[in-house]
């Protein structure tokens, strides 16, 4: 039996660290990163096997967590333990600030899970990590994410271009004082 390391709990959700060797986590990542909205808004990740999913988790969310003490978490519904998304804090070499990242399965959208998880992550970042500022990057056409971030107190700060493709993204900022 796997021991899931819980990071946060909200009224409806549990956020825990990913476990790369877990078949549940691997299958969830395969489904999430191949969702058409993920591909359109985040990009193609070429993850279609459990082995690729394990490597993605080890070198991505888990690697960041081991290195920095934070990263992306699996988001599960408390009612049934079903994986519904991922949410957490990311440190990219191409951004000065830590940014909020999240993605949810299509069937989990529209239920307020992303807002609930992201709000908890911001609060955790402020309280536990002492963060005063967090940013978010969003494709300009991702209306639902722009609306969600505005509801969390993020303010539009213009655009930013990030490698590898130098795609133009909206940059939004959140401060602990305002959030």
Walk me through what this model shows.
The protein is α+β, with helices and mostly antiparallel strands and 179 residues long. It has one domain: Aminopeptidase (3-Layer(aba) Sandwich), CATH 3.40.630.30. Helix content is 34%, strand content 29%. The chain has six helices and eight strands; from the N terminus they run E-E-H-H-H-H-E-E-E-H-E-H-E-E. The strands form two sheets. A five-stranded antiparallel beta sheet has the order 1-2-3-4-5, sandwiched between helices. A three-stranded antiparallel beta sheet has the order 6-8-7, with helices on one face. A hairpin with an 8-residue loop joins strand 4 and strand 5. Helix 1 crosses helix 3 and helix 3 packs parallel to helix 4. The radius of gyration is 15 Å and the shape is globular. The chain starts with 5 loop residues before the first strand and ends with a strand. The relative contact order is 0.14.
């Amino acid at each position: 039996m796997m021991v899931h390391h819980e990071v946060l709990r909200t009224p409806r959700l549990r956020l825990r660290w990913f476990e790369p060797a877990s078949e549940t986590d691997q299958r969830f990542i395969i489904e999430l990163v191949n969702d058409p909205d993920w591909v359109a808004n985040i990009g193609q990740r070429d993850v279609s096997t459990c082995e690729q999913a394990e490597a993605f988790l080890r070198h991505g969310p888990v690697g960041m967590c081991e290195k920095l003490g934070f990263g992306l978490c699996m988001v599960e519904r408390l009612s049934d333990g079903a994986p519904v998304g991922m949410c957490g804090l990311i440190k990219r070499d191409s951004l000065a600030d830590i940014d909020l990242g999240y993605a949810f399965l299509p069937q989990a959208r529209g239920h307020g899970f992303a807002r609930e998880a992201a709000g908890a992550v911001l609060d955790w970042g402020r309280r536990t990590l002492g963060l005063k500022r967090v940013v978010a990057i969003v494709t300009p056409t991702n209306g639902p994410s722009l609306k969600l971030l505005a509801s969390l107190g993020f303010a539009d700060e213009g655009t930013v271009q990030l490698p590898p493709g130098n795609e133009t993204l909206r940059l939004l900022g959140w401060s602990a004082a305002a959030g």
